[in-house]
Amino acid sequence: MTPDTLPDAEAALAALADRMQGAVAHDAALVGIYSGGAWIAERLAARLPGAHPLGFIDVSYYRDDYALSGLKPNTRRTSLPFDVSGATIVLVDDVLYTGRSVRAAVNELFDFGRPERIELAVLVDRGGRELPIEPTYVGARLAVARNLSIVLSRDPGGTLSLGVEPLTGVG
Amino acid sequence: MAARNPQLNRNGELTHLLTLEGLPAEIVTHILDTAAPFVSIAEREVKKVPLLRGKAMFNLFFENSTRTRTTFEIAAKRLSADVINLNIGASSTSKGETLLDTVDNLCAMNADLFVVRHSQSGAPHLIASHLDATGRAHVHVVNAGDGRHQHPTQGLLDLYTIRHYRKDFRALTVAIVGDVLHSRVARSLIHGLTTMRAAEVRVIAPRTLLPTRVEELGVRVCSDMREGLAGCDVVVMLRLQSERMKGALLPSAGEYFKHYGLTAEKLALAKPDAIVMHPGPMNRGVEIDSAVADGARSVILPQVTFGIAVRMAVLSIISAN
To answer: Of B56, B89, B102, B227, which is most buried, counting CB atoms within 10 Å of its CB?
Structure first.
């Protein structure tokens, strides 16, 4: 996998929004997982019809690799400015791989209340799951070597792009 | 070979917190940055995150404390650790067990963290060295106040509070007022402020309540409160520790208040937006007037709240190293 064979992030975002439109509850909250998922959630909130409360989640305190690698620097504050109890929530992430971040995010959501339903929207599903977690909405699917990490970046104008890097941690 | 800083591991990471003296600025900043998002945990429905789930923290207080012991307990519980409070007065120590035997016994009960307060300076350091020398580097020690030496988490929560209200340390003049001689809080804060390159640190106290050669810590000494408070950004009041006083260091509490008690009139000499701090417990009418303690510029209660987040940060950082 080289950078030119990666899908275009903006095209994947458009595809993801198309799949969600009509399928997502009109009042579902969009909760982005920092940092890439937060960018996607912001873009989806602006693009999807209906009024979608927007939240952000930093799963650092719920990760299963804290004992191995400690706290990552620059932990962000989780912000869920709506009542989680009874809400329909779409968790939004950039790249779905092992499923461990999503597991952590689901656990964290339950510490804020009891959601009615949680769905999962991802820009890219690269396979390789280590947990029984499946996305509800996917922008693009691709296969990548295990030793590579797919990284989403955002330029100052807000345009998203995908790149590959050697894998440093488990996503 | 230079002796290794006993609170850092071989990779230079914080593994015990014993003192702010010599603690690198990057580590102090890392602790303060880590504490910031922990403040909001208290606003959740479930005021807990699972970082230290399954860890056992022993509060080992050989000296009385309510606030510090309680805030360590809350910090550990918000990180999902199990907390065991030892009532030392009624324990084996009073039956003649040594400090290190107590520690060995608690390690045999699978302790992961010790939070230690002791009237003897260096007691937490002794425990940390003992653990490291006996191959138990996975057990961590936090100094919760040792003698007149250090109270590093108080120093860190003071730094956090100052940064919260005033951002850049390098632009600040901080006055520390009162019983510096007996105050491990003052010593930790002075080291912390020096490390973070505060523009000026002043200590204001009668000579009898200042350690000899206090200037060598990098502070300016003022015996007159009006001179010392002029133009300050931060005023830190210390408790008059009369229980530690040996001999007649002061004429009377009333006399002390007249000269070194913080009143609205004296506070007016500091900058108009200066904040007032106090580590607690306060002696109203001795070192601080109620009108100031409860006034708009007092951040004494936010200090307590921030103290929990700062202790959460320390516990979660050392536990992973």
So the answer is: B102
